[in-house]
Amino acid sequence: MSGSRLDWRWYRLRFRAPLETAAGSLGTRRGILVSVATADGLVGLGDVAPWPGTEDRALPEAADWLAALRAVAEEGEGALRQALERVAAVTPGARAARAALETALLDVSAQRAGVPLAFWLRSSARSSVPVNALIGIADPERTVEAARAAVAAGFRALKLKVRIAASEVERVAAVRRAVGPEVQLRLDANASAAVAAALAFARAVAPLGIEYLEQPVGSLEELAALRRQSPVPLAADEVLAGPDELERALALGAADIVIAKLPLVGSVERLLDLAERCERAGIAVVVTSNLESAVGLVAALHVAAALPGNAERAHGLATAGLVEPLGREPVFQPLGGRLVLPPGPGLGLDRTMMLAGEEDG
């Protein structure tokens, strides 16, 4: 093969149990696995994983964007890398596809260099990162049970899905009583409330020692207004749906914490640049899963391991156990509240295993 080859296949993930959030219940997840085979026999992988619930529109956008580059790939790996920089990725699906293709090309580069991707991105990267446990909305008893189990497994940070409601304050308080003062509590409301209700909730949970309240309102402007009054640090997530929104978030001073999802940013290198800028501005960056396959999750893990700043900041990557494995993919479970980079160069994944299995779509 004188050039390179760009391929992809659709997939469907099934949740082991529905994940209950303020925005609804998640039972399945669809995406596209991307592979780039090079002339020297390497295969790089990436994952197209747009925002959950948007797949019907975003995945066809992604497939069209990838199809436009298939002929370019045949001209060679260099041509594909150049096209990555000049071909616009405007829609959410195209941004997710761009992130997947860039990941695959970076995977190839790191394999060629013989180092894990995290260390190819940043020589001072870490071999493991702390992660938070994710607990969906449930009754207080089941929530406390899940929280205790997570702490017993070594997690020092818990992320609770919450509704902005007075009844939820007691559920959060029950968790705090159960796990003690040293465990970090993060609350994620999935853009479900108005500013006044979110402010009342923030004031009610503030005495419980909340690390941050994630996306309680629906827009950057509302988040900025809330931040000026909130006694609890605020994190931006759903509103950060692309580079423009990220720039606006920084300009508005809308958040204390930026939740960074690779498919939404559209680029590994842009995400790392964003993290550098945020750290200089005193804004923390937390890399989180977008509930994707092992390919996307491991890519996010490498990025988190390469971030500047606080090495012990927990990231939102302990999600592999929520879904059934895709084909014969490995399940990347935390050990002692940490995720360790897979051994081997690049992403460190078995390419044959990851590309096996039935297609969906």
From TrEMBL:
Pathway: Quinol/quinone metabolism; menaquinone biosynthesis; Quinol/quinone metabolism; 1,4-dihydroxy-2-naphthoate biosynthesis; 1,4-dihydroxy-2-naphthoate from chorismate: step 4/7. SMART domains: MR_MLE (SM00922). Pfam families: MR_MLE_C, MR_MLE_N. Its cofactor is a divalent metal cation. One of its GO terms (biological process) is peptide metabolic process. Residues 140-233 form the Mandelate racemase/muconate lactonizing enzyme C-terminal domain. InterPro entries: Enolase-like_C_sf (IPR036849), Enolase-like_N (IPR029017), Enolase_C-like (IPR029065), Mandel_Rmase/mucon_lact_enz_CS (IPR018110), Mandelate_racemase_C (IPR013342), Mandelate_racemase_N_dom (IPR013341), OSB_synthase_MenC1 (IPR010196). The active site is at 161 (proton donor), 261 (proton acceptor). Its EC number is 4.2.1.113. Mg(2+) binds at residues 188, 214, 237. It is an enzyme of class 4 (lyase). Keywords: Isomerase, Lyase, Magnesium, Menaquinone biosynthesis, Metal-binding, Plasmid. The keyword Isomerase applies. GO terms for molecular function: magnesium ion binding; O-succinylbenzoate synthase activity; racemase and epimerase activity. It catalyses: (1R,6R)-6-hydroxy-2-succinyl-cyclohexa-2,4-diene-1-carboxylate = 2-succinylbenzoate + H2O. Converts 2-succinyl-6-hydroxy-2,4-cyclohexadiene-1-carboxylate (SHCHC) to 2-succinylbenzoate (OSB). Belongs to the mandelate racemase/muconate lactonizing enzyme family. MenC type 1 subfamily. NCBIfam families: menC_gam_Gplu. This is o-succinylbenzoate synthase. It comes from Thermomicrobium roseum (strain ATCC 27502 / DSM 5159 / P-2). The gene is menC.
